[in-house]
Structures are given as C-alpha cells and as structure tokens.
Amino acid sequence: MKRSLHAMAGLIAIAMIVLFIVATLYSEFSGNRDLIFVVKRGIAFPGIEILVCVMVLAGGSGRSLAKSRSVALAAKKARRMRFVALNGIAILIPCAILLAYWATYGILTARFYVVQSIEILAGLTNLTMLVLNMRDGLLLKRTRTGKATAGTRRET
C-alpha cells in the first residue's frame, strides 16, 4: 500500500507540474489577458497547496520506503528531493505568488515575463528531477522483486 501511495503521489506531482507549464505557455501564446490571470491565479491558489501536499506525501512515503533498503539509488532520490523542495520553496512558490499578484492587477510588464521565465525553468528542473526519481524508483522496485536488468546491481 505504501508503494502504491508513493507512486500515485509522484505521478500526480509530475502531472501537476506538466499542467502548470503547459497552461502557462498556452495562456501566454493565446495572448488573452483574462486567461493569463486565470492560469496564474489557479497555479498560485489552489495549485501550490495541492502540489505541496502531494510532494509531502511522496517525500514522506519515499523516506519510509527507503528505511527498509540501503541502496545508493534511494540516497540519490533523497538528495534530488531535497533539491526539489529547496527549488520549490525558494523559487517556485514566490514566483507563482508574485505572478498571480501581477496578473491580478494586469501588470504584464517585462519583469512579469522575466519572473515567469525563471518559474518555467525552475519548474522544468523540478520536473526533470522527479522523472529521474521515478526512473530510479522503478529500478529499485525491479531489484527488490528480483527482476534486475543488466547493469543494475542487486544489493542486500
């Protein structure tokens, strides 16, 4: 059950980040100021709250699953998750809130687009880290069930 919860939380987090990026790009390319406002507001509230809860669930369940294993991949996943959390707290959340504020008041200046570019790059970075963690999680699962592929080492 813990593994299923962890996998589901990770997939939801990945899907939400993809949705945020795609919605942002779509709204910008549409040129519709109202759509930009709706997307930025939705990402900031309730998007952030939902994503943070899902990430906490994924991180907590991942940490719990890793206790029963002493595998280098689990440690690598934990390091990536610390980076993802720092990136989210230091860059993504402040950017999302600031962009929602500016979009609310129609302040779509060059500063808005610079911050939005930073937000997109930070989001793509977190997306990459989460996808790498998903890949390593699948490798951990395979080694645990005895279905290790060539090039992976089974540790006990």
Structural class: mainly alpha
Evaluate the radius of gyration: 18 Å
Mean pLDDT over all positions:
90
Count of individual beta strands: 0
SSE order, one letter for each helix or strand = HHHH
Largest sheet data? none
Shape: elongated
Count of helical segments? Answer: 4
Span between termini: 22 Å
Low-confidence spans: pLDDT under 50, at least 5 residues? none
> Strand share of the residues?
under 5%
For the record, the count of structural domains works out to 1
What is the share of helical residues? over 70%
Explained architecture:
- The protein is mostly helical.
- The protein has one domain.
- The chain has helices spanning 2-30, 33-67, 72-104, 110-144.
- The longest helix is centred in the first third of the chain and has 35 residues, at 33-67.
- The model has no long low-confidence stretch (mean pLDDT 90).
Topology, please?
Layout: H1 2-30, H2 33-67, H3 72-104, H4 110-144
Helix pairs in contact: 1-2, 1-4, 2-3, 3-4
Main traits of this protein?
156 residues, mainly alpha, 4 helices, 85% helix, elongated, membrane, transmembrane, Transmembrane protein
Describe the structure concisely for a colleague:
Keywords: Membrane, Transmembrane, Transmembrane helix. The protein has 156 residues and is mostly helical. The chain contains 4 helices and no strands.
